[in-house]
Amino acid sequence: MTGQLAPADLIRKHFVTKAKGDREELRNELALDVRWWAPASAAAKGIVENPMVGADRAIDHLTVEMYEEEGREWTITHLLSEGDLVAVRARLQARVAKNGKDYDNTYLFLYRVTEGRIAEAWVEFDTAYAFDKFA
Amino acid sequence: MSTPAADEIERFVIDHFRAKSECDRQALLEQFAPDVRVWTPLSLTNRNFVERPTVGAERMADLIASEFFYTKAGRAWTVEDWVSDGVKLAVRASLKAIIAATGEPYENSYTFFYRLDGLRIAESWEAFDTAFAADRVQPQHDSI
């Protein structure tokens, strides 16, 4: 149980957890009914539904669907928190799971934290770069 | 320079996105620091949309207040969420507009991360669905 970490601390921990692909710890960090909003074109391509709903679905997405676990590295460059919202700018360096291509992209996340867990997340990233790598 | 209070930041956010919607060049020049640096997504620079970083309030005002991407009429930004500590500011917003090159409607979601210098944007990073934008928008370089 994550308990009642401050929202900023929860999100810092979450980036370590998702880099490791630790499903049990992710389960402690996500609300059971978490809603995860991705860019519209990712949904249009069938990569994700928009929103993804539920911790189990989000955990699959965060751990095994997109990028190889080995060598996956998230680096937070900015983090900003006030009230129940946390904004993060972060860099992901990894290899694409389906083709092994090197991947290096920057993300902006906004999280809403409720009772020590991520209740909602919005993610924006350079999808044109990403889709080139996923192809 | 003192750190702005929360109510000042809120007014700034509302007015900045109003200025972007209304192509208010004078307000934009006041809201961006003269030497602002704006980091747009890399793939759009590779597609010759804009230089990276985009430097200077004048350049930003030219890009936003012209029909470089969208027509001036029918442009509407909606702020969905914002969070700030007075030095950094993140805004999640959506844009409805008309694409200048084609006249087609455009709707996309954006997240901006700003470094503030008082009530001015000193540095900005933005992320959005670039694949969606790149398939539809063509920059009008002769509009400035």
Number of strands of chain B: 6
Total number of distinct structural domains of chain B: 1
The CATH topology of chain A is given as Nuclear Transport Factor 2, Chain: A
CATH secondary-structure class of chain B: Alpha Beta
Cα-atom radius of gyration of chain B: 14 Å
User: How many strands, which pairing sense, and closed or not: the largest β-sheet of chain B?
Assistant: 6 strands, mixed
With helices defined by DSSP (H or I, 4 residues minimum), what is the helix count of chain A?
5
CATH topology of chain B: Nuclear Transport Factor 2, Chain: A
Query: What is the CATH class name of chain A?
Result: Alpha Beta
The outline of chain B comes out as globular
What is the architecture of chain B at the second tier of CATH? Answer: Roll
Tell me the domain tally of chain A: 1
Integer-rounded radius of gyration of chain A: 14 Å
What is shown here, in short?
With 135 residues, chain A is of the alpha+beta class. Chain A contains five helices and six strands. Chain B is built from five helices and six strands, in the order ααβαβαββββα.
Task: Tell me what the structure shows.
The complex is a heterodimer of chains A (135) and B (144). With 135 residues, chain A is of the alpha+beta class. Chain A contains 5 helices and 6 strands, in the order ααβαβαββββα. Chain A has one domain (7-134): Nuclear Transport Factor 2, Chain: A. Chain A has helices at residues 7-20, 23-29, 40-44, 55-65, 127-134, and strands at residues 30-37, 52-53, 73-82, 85-95, 102-114, 117-125. Chain A has a 6-stranded mixed β-sheet with strand order 2-1-6-5-4-3. By secondary structure, chain B is of the alpha+beta class. Chain B has a single domain, classed as Nuclear Transport Factor 2, Chain: A (Roll). Helix content of chain B is 31%, strand content 35%. Chain B contains 5 helices and 6 strands, in the order ααβαβαββββα. A 6-stranded mixed β-sheet of chain B has the order 2-1-6-5-4-3. In chain B, a hairpin with a 4-residue loop joins β5 and β6. The longest helix of chain B has 17 residues, at 6-22. Classes of the chains: A alpha+beta (135), B alpha+beta (144).
